[in-house]
Amino acid sequence: MSLAHGRPYLAIPGPSVMPDAVLQAMHQPAPNIYEGDIVTLVEGIVRDVKRVARTEGHVAIYIANGHGAWEAALSNLYKPGDRVLVPATGRFAHGWAEMAEGLGLVPQIVEFGTQSPIDAARIEEILTADTAHEIKGVLFSHVDTATSIRNDPRPLRAALDAAGHPALLMADCIASMACDEFHMDDWGVDVALTGSQKGLMVPPGLSFVFFNDRAKAVRAQMPRVSRYWDWVPRSEPEFVYQYFGGTSPTHHLFGLRAALDMLHDEGMEHVWARHATLARVVWAACERWSEGGALKLNLADRSLRSHAVTALGVGIGNGQKMRAWTAENAGLTLGLGLGMATEEDPHGTGFFRIGHMGHLNAHMVLGAVGVIEAGLQALQIPHGKGALEKAAEVVAQPEAVAF
Amino acid sequence: MSLAHGRPYLAIPGPSVMPDAVLQAMHQPAPNIYEGDIVTLVEGIVRDVKRVARTEGHVAIYIANGHGAWEAALSNLYKPGDRVLVPATGRFAHGWAEMAEGLGLVPQIVEFGTQSPIDAARIEEILTADTAHEIKGVLFSHVDTATSIRNDPRPLRAALDAAGHPALLMADCIASMACDEFHMDDWGVDVALTGSQKGLMVPPGLSFVFFNDRAKAVRAQMPRVSRYWDWVPRSEPEFVYQYFGGTSPTHHLFGLRAALDMLHDEGMEHVWARHATLARVVWAACERWSEGGALKLNLADRSLRSHAVTALGVGIGNGQKMRAWTAENAGLTLGLGLGMATEEDPHGTGFFRIGHMGHLNAHMVLGAVGVIEAGLQALQIPHGKGALEKAAEVVAQPEAVAF
Amino acid sequence: MSLAHGRPYLAIPGPSVMPDAVLQAMHQPAPNIYEGDIVTLVEGIVRDVKRVARTEGHVAIYIANGHGAWEAALSNLYKPGDRVLVPATGRFAHGWAEMAEGLGLVPQIVEFGTQSPIDAARIEEILTADTAHEIKGVLFSHVDTATSIRNDPRPLRAALDAAGHPALLMADCIASMACDEFHMDDWGVDVALTGSQKGLMVPPGLSFVFFNDRAKAVRAQMPRVSRYWDWVPRSEPEFVYQYFGGTSPTHHLFGLRAALDMLHDEGMEHVWARHATLARVVWAACERWSEGGALKLNLADRSLRSHAVTALGVGIGNGQKMRAWTAENAGLTLGLGLGMATEEDPHGTGFFRIGHMGHLNAHMVLGAVGVIEAGLQALQIPHGKGALEKAAEVVAQPEAVAF
Amino acid sequence: MSLAHGRPYLAIPGPSVMPDAVLQAMHQPAPNIYEGDIVTLVEGIVRDVKRVARTEGHVAIYIANGHGAWEAALSNLYKPGDRVLVPATGRFAHGWAEMAEGLGLVPQIVEFGTQSPIDAARIEEILTADTAHEIKGVLFSHVDTATSIRNDPRPLRAALDAAGHPALLMADCIASMACDEFHMDDWGVDVALTGSQKGLMVPPGLSFVFFNDRAKAVRAQMPRVSRYWDWVPRSEPEFVYQYFGGTSPTHHLFGLRAALDMLHDEGMEHVWARHATLARVVWAACERWSEGGALKLNLADRSLRSHAVTALGVGIGNGQKMRAWTAENAGLTLGLGLGMATEEDPHGTGFFRIGHMGHLNAHMVLGAVGVIEAGLQALQIPHGKGALEKAAEVVAQPEAVAF
Question: I need a surface site. Which of C147, D197, D265, D343 has the fewest CB within 10 A?
Fold first, then answer.
């Protein structure tokens, strides 16, 4: 007998749970891709996805995953030999830096470990020292999916400004967009990018590069940009097929339309507040568990934590055991620890992650922490008591969250 | 901001949560209804739905809800003026009795209230007294969806046998089939009926009347049976359209095929054990809550409780408030109290029900009790502490359940 | 190699082709059935399905197929021993008469064969002779799905009026509703019934009984009506569950809502005109084929033909061969001949039917006649030439059809 | 009144009609992307998509459209400054050459117009003259979607061999794969590429680059390849996420699995034969129409025509009118003329294309030619008679097609 039979719940940090309305919208015949409804469909999506990023700038949409967006953004702005600065707070910053290397760029990684956010003062120092302005871009993760650290873009903007440095500020918002508060224009981010499968609640396969006029001007100076990644025809198309450099991703567009309607019907401020509150539900449980034992939140300081994903340590081997137990016994799939290897735990078996992004309500989250409590009991992992009541308390009396 | 945005969870006692495989299977073009695949489809369903009821007898499948099955079963066996005995442990027994009256039968209700099971001794007494064998059938709810009382069919069989009474034993298994253990043949039930939308996990719209050779013989003596309800062509069809007395319910059949595959792949014993355990999860929480306050399980004795639905009292007005709160704030829809009106609470506002039937796992149930805990806190309904940990404990260390 | 691989096309006279929007709408979780959106959903459906029947009267919706609607309508109006008159123009009139017999009524069949419509003069004669008004109802098929004869309700109304006879005029519109023009109120029909799976474009499983105040008054005089069929609570419910005498057919309601939106967005007059024109497309081909050979339309007179289905003879054995050929070689499923048995052809193998009802456009119909042409050629069935160009001509230059 | 209401039929040359099984398979929750079923899912897809291309070589699958596959293939094999030869028989060869330019390569276009295939002798001449082997690749369209010309890869292979030239032979099979016969290994093609949305019957969003060991060896010599396009980790992954250089396109994989099952269940030889025969159905009609008037097939020689798409001229303005007429009046969407502009007709309004690829049967194709016939009549475009009967004749008596 297994208690896993039932509607499975996927709590990994992406893909997130797809709303029924999204999957429904994708279940229809292919449309004409040259004329007719497709034109207004794409135009509306361009308009409304920019409202999610809070930008009046531009967007290029790619049939690609987030790694594609990384490459696309870099391809439009930098040529082989160009230097980029990459403050790192987890595995994904390193991934972006590798992507830059693959294009012949010269990334300079500034390492902040897996438990501290970017120190903007350190970045300002480096930028100030770069009087020749050889650094062309600053690439950072708004939220690093591996460590769940959330980096505030504002101090980075201030650092660039204080240093009087013209490098572009580029934010990887793959894990955070439509979960954690983000205002591209107001916060001075020049380029932001994201994927479809997390806060946007659409199956993986689309990614988005938002850019402002400063970035556009840099692109205009590029001697050559690969046709597939070139954002010019994608953001200023004469014909509809240029939005996607060829055939449109018709069914993803149907799904995305439904998802954008849901987000804007709820209101972005409400979406962010919901994520903030549900993250607190998870934290309330985790903090209580950690009082009594082995479990440890990756980040002690709440203000550094993403509202979309939580990384946890539970002792060598226990992360892996926990994930197996919840999947086999309770219908809950947790995320594995990524980039958390240590000398004692070279495969990161002591970690797991809870994804709490996208189409998410109190029932789903309270169910997840309930199952983890059961797992801690079953696997006899020492843990503090009263975690679930604390979690329920946050649902019962959510703090006001203002944006 | 509402924490209800996300995948809604419906925890009413039917319709239950439909598996994705069922909805997927229903999303296809209509088939030919006169020949081809439909023939083997229906034959396989007939075979496999009888395995759910644990009978080698017969089944007639109706395009109808459970109320239709009530009428169908009675229409095949009784003529105006016939007497039937109806031991009642909740609203649904009364509903069936009304259906009998609508057909001109004479139901004799034996009332056991809303908190006690049927007393088989009392039934035996009545049957023994009926030396003329005027009572033609004994109609009872295996589980009454309103009170969540589970009545054991075996003592009733024994009562009939002890009284040497030929009346047919008829079980309403609408709320219990494929949730609570049931062996039609072994337990001596002559007629059993159910609907598609609970343990069978298919949208409402199909119902099933299972009958054995004794019931078949009674039907054979009937002077006239309405063509639509007549189970003879439906259970012994010459042509495929006779299974449904006309056009087949094609899409429901597609869904039912998927659901039966899921049930038999899991194994009926495992399905029952899962329901038994998940019911204990709900009870563990409820019993703890009830220690400290207003909340009260309808049935104190665990052995009388259904594994599919739990009825609770929380104080006048509070049932209604709780249901509104969980739907608006947490994405959880609870069932309303049915047939629980009292003089002080004429609209039954003090009750609610938790459905825990069908496509159900530990995550779903722990989420439901987590939300109810939040509701008790938010609405300041006095309740005992530690309920959620107790619930998680059942998931962590399920008792062995044998059938 | 088979040319049947591809999107199959079902051209049987029901179920018809389900629109994607309908199947999409049905692919969603079950809703609460006691409160919330379900209430407005059902109310809207009641309102809009009456607009399809063109009645300001009442409707009871049943979870049942068309045979259920037959029984439901009779159950509300007649008691055992009551006489009903059944003018017959095909198998389905006989089916309804059998249903009446099953309820203990005394149907009097007036046979008009399979190639002539009802002769209203003959009906008037019978009614005039029934001075005691023993005949309580006149039951006829607006369109008989087997013969494809369309009977005009107006002369029947006139016959009743001329005879001064109070019997109710009851129309079986299962095959015709939302295909062939129909105005229940204006044409003086007292009771009309239909199913979900033809012109209404929803999977089989729902049926509808429309009735006017005259019929309602007759119902009010009935000593007893079966609870499941009783249309009183279904048409004047106090609580939402009464619409369906128990659990609502939730997913069919979702689908029906989508279908009604499609019908009323197009406009009923346009829907009827489309069916009228597409029927002419089929006829143009069939008439040309019949010039040169074996193929014969069941009805020579266009004004007698349904716009929803066409019955054809092609010579003993050839109907069956044709159906097998088109399914195996071209992806087209044709309807079998029903109720067309003769002494020489006891299994009706010489007939087939083309369903052209519901979600239907010129491409679908021209494809169907194209495949039949190929079948005539492949099976070497003698046939006239130029049929397909004639069919295309109707699409190229449709006659104006006014309602 | 419009005869377009009904199931729309999209006969453009991609996206093709998606099978219900594919859309159904895509309608499910997201899976875990790091472990579990995803691993065997991708492995099976890799195996089975190679069987479609008839190669025992390698494949890299990209989240991208066909244009992405163009760039991916070039990115793995050539560096800025490398020369590639591009024999052109339509717009898409030019598109690929532009993609090469965008990467800094130097494409040499050899123009064969829009009505002639590649002349292999001319290619051999050029290759023979390139004694320094500066030409690194020969890029051609197996089928050019714009002109519907089908180029046989075998003479090109022979030309390379005769010239003793080491350039890689690269085939764009986007429009032809799983429609027109193709044997990558046997025919000596080094690199082949395709997309998901045509013969593979899956929504746009995936593309495929197949390559043999020769191409792999060339890749191994590349100094640097962009990380996203690099086919090494995609074809020799250590971890499942490397197949897609990041997040997997989960829902496309579900759909592709269903589509590959359909193709291999039918058998590739049968799939090709079906396309060959259905193309002949289209041609039979078009050739007859062209006898009497304005309509003209782009290619007079049947052996040069693709089995997946047919390009037609109908006189200036008429192509555009025809497409509008069939969409508005009959539910048929035809493809527009691409790359067919002439001096007199600078917008190519005189052309249209019929897509006949993928999930396709005789009913669909006969419906399409039936609607075009109606359009020719309605728009009074002169045309030969008897076209539809000729088309039906091909279905009735298909020639044997052997591969």
Answer: D343
Report pLDDT for B341. Answer: 83
Amino acid B402: pLDDT? 73
Q: Which of A17, A227, A249 sits opposite D102 (nearest CB)?
A: A227
Closest-CA residue to C271 (of D326, D1, D327): D1
Tokens, residue C147: 């013969």
Q: Does pTM surpass 0.95?
A: yes
Alpha-carbon distance A159 to nearest alpha carbon in chain D (angstroms): 30
DSSP secondary structure of A260-287: HHHHHHH-HHHHHHHHHHHHHHHHHHHH
Annotation: binding site of A for substrate: 353
Residue B51 assigned to a binding site = no
- Best of A228, A332, A336, A364 to disrupt the D interface by mutation (most D CBs within 10 Å)? A228
3-state secondary structure B161-219: HHHCCCCEEEEECCCCCCCCCCCCCCCCCCEEEEECCCCCCCCCCEEEEEECHHHHHHH
Amino acid letter for position A202: V
* Residues of chain B neighbouring D20 (CB-CB closer than 8 A): 27-29
Higher-pLDDT residue of A401 and B38 is B38
> Between B and D, how many CB-CB pairs are < 8 A?
14
pLDDT tens digits, one per residue of C366-388: 999 999 999 999 999 999 999 99
CB contact under 8 A, A24 and C27: yes
CATH code for residues B31-264: 3.40.640.10
Residue A400 DSSP class: P
- Comparing CB atoms, the residue among A363, A371, A373 nearest residue B371 is A363
* Helix (H) or strand (E) segment spanning residue D127: helix D120-129
Q: B371 and A362: CB-CB below 8 Å?
A: yes
Binding site feature residues of A: 353
ipTM of this predicted structure: 0.97
Q: What is the pLDDT of residues D303-344, one digit of tens each?
A: 999 999 999 999 999 999 999 999 999 999 999 998 888 889
Distance of CA C392 to the CA centre of its chain: 26
DSSP helix/strand/coil, D351:
strand
- Checking if the pLDDT of C402 tops 80, the result is no
| Per-residue pLDDT at C400 | 80
- Residue C87 has what pLDDT? 98
pLDDT above 90 coverage of chain B, percent = 94
All residues of chain B having their beta carbon less than 8 Å from the beta carbon of residue C244 are 65
Residue A403 pLDDT greater than 80, yes or no = no
Nearest CA to CA, how far is B256 from chain D (Å)? Answer: 16
B351-355 and C168-172 as β-strands: parallel, antiparallel, unpaired? unpaired
**Shortest Cα distance, chain D CAs vs residue C146, angstroms:** 24
pLDDT digits 0-9 by tens, A300-354: 999 999 999 999 999 999 999 999 999 999 999 999 998 888 889 998 899 999 9
Q: Which chain B residues have a beta carbon less than 8 Å from that of A262?
A: 5
At A255-311, the pLDDT tens digits run: 999 999 999 999 999 999 999 999 999 999 999 999 987 899 999 999 999 999 999
Per-domain residue ranges for chain D? Answer: 9-16+268-396, 31-264
CA nearest neighbour of A154 among A178, A127, A118: A118
- Please check whether residue C170 is in contact with residue C105, taking contact to mean a CB–CB distance below 8 angstroms: no
Cβ within 8 Å, pair B10-C30: yes
Kindly indicate whether the domain formed by B9-16+268-396 is annotated with CATH number 3.40.50.970.
no
Nearest residue of C to residue A21, measured between CA atoms: C28
B9-16+268-396 against B31-264: fold identical:
no
Q: Rounded distance, CA D100 to CA D78, Å?
A: 9
Q: Across all residues in chain B, what is the average pLDDT?
A: 96
Q: How far apart are CA A295 and CA A354, in angstroms?
A: 13
Closest B-chain CA to A357: B6
